[in-house]
Amino acid sequence: MQQHLTEQITLFASVLKWTVYASLVGLLVGLGTTGFLRSLAWTSAQYASHHNYFLFLPATLLVSTTLVRWLAPDAAGHGTEKVIEAVHKRMGKIPLAVVPVKLVATVLTLAGGGSAGKEGPCAQIGAGLASGLADILRVADRDRRKLVICGISAGFATVFGTPIAGALFGVEVLVLGQVFYDVLFPSFVAGIVGYHVATSLGVSYPHPPSCLLPQLSSFTFLEIILLGAVCGLVSLLLIELMKFGHRIFERLPWHWSLNPLLGGGLLILVGTQVSTNYLGLGLDTIESGLNGAVLPAGAAFWKSVTTSITLGCGGSGGILTPIFFIGTATGNLYAQLVNPSYLAAFSCIGMVALLAGSANTPIAASVMAMELFGPQIAPFAAIACMVSFLIVGYRSIYPSQLLGIQKSASLSIATGRPVGCSGHPVYQPRDKTLVKMLLTSLGAYRNRWRK
């Protein structure tokens, strides 16, 4: 009896402890995110007062890159990647200087027309504040790691207004195929508290209108599976373009300060010769697609290119807002080709399916679809997200994400290492597999044809 009582008291004390800790993280992240979003809105308004504001991109990117290199190198790139790296390699230890530097550098990049997102900085700001809180509380490394994961969740939840999906994203994005259940409760608390703090301070979130969904039938089911496969392939394209952009700029034989000047010049070229819709956050295009407007056929490609240039040359920002843009455009184009009656529905599903594939977070993406578009979209979004997650294979927009599972028993790859260092999977045929049956049948047909 005494042992049972001790167990229950200990568990209850743990719930109280993490309720307090996670609430503090949520409060800090809510305040930090509100400050970031207001700074971004004000700075964007100043830039927008100039007709061709994007012509300042070379200088803007140079200032942003210089700030990060000189003051906080850990703030480089898209923030979530650096936080994942800190969680796995340094038990969540993040220098506090990252917070103001990341905020200023990202505001400059986005307001000036750089193609990036706002969630990565919020995740990194949240994680940095959580790490600072851990220093004040003098907690053990294991608890520091939990607090930083709560910061990721709260940052995602607060910037997009999706507290449940934000909590799930923080515990799902760290390891491909695994969920950190021991951090699930504090992540929910941090995400919900951060969201309510931000809304109490005046942050508002767009609410996409309910879209017309197709009747769930055998044909519709196949359409959704195919849409998920397409989103998985587009995720692969985005991941490879991001790698290519970083690799090219790193190998240029000159001083690093020339990279943002070149990147800014290339972005100006896209803005003047193609469209300015592919610069900045691109929220207007996302909203148009979700409302059922027809988007240009090349929208997904050009947004991938401008994002690769912006982050590859040293710009600061996240990657998820571009993913939402690319996913919306992909679903929109798919609807134009397959079923134009459901432009809005397929755009919504494409948006979350591309997130599931690029970040390997199908659960968070499915829940996000329900939070943004209503529960009626759940079966469509869940299927598309899972298919996209499987099709993308062992790749991720976050190279520091650890590989936790094998997506196919016929593809062997070492687990427990970062996705970016795991190499290519090795095909190992088994006795009874569909692939082997198809290859055997094809070989037999070829032999008969030759005879």
UniProtKB/TrEMBL annotation:
The keyword Membrane applies. The chain crosses the membrane at residues 20-41, 53-72, 146-167, 179-198, 218-239, 260-280, 300-325, 337-357, 377-397. GO terms for molecular function: chloride transmembrane transporter activity. InterPro entries: Cl-channel_core, ClC, ClC-type_chloride_channel. Gene3D superfamilies: Clc chloride channel. Coiled coil: none annotated. It is a multi-pass membrane protein. It is found in: Membrane. Keywords: Membrane, Transmembrane, Transmembrane helix. GO terms for cellular component: membrane. Its main location: membrane. It comes from the Bacteria. This is Permease. It comes from Geomonas limicola.
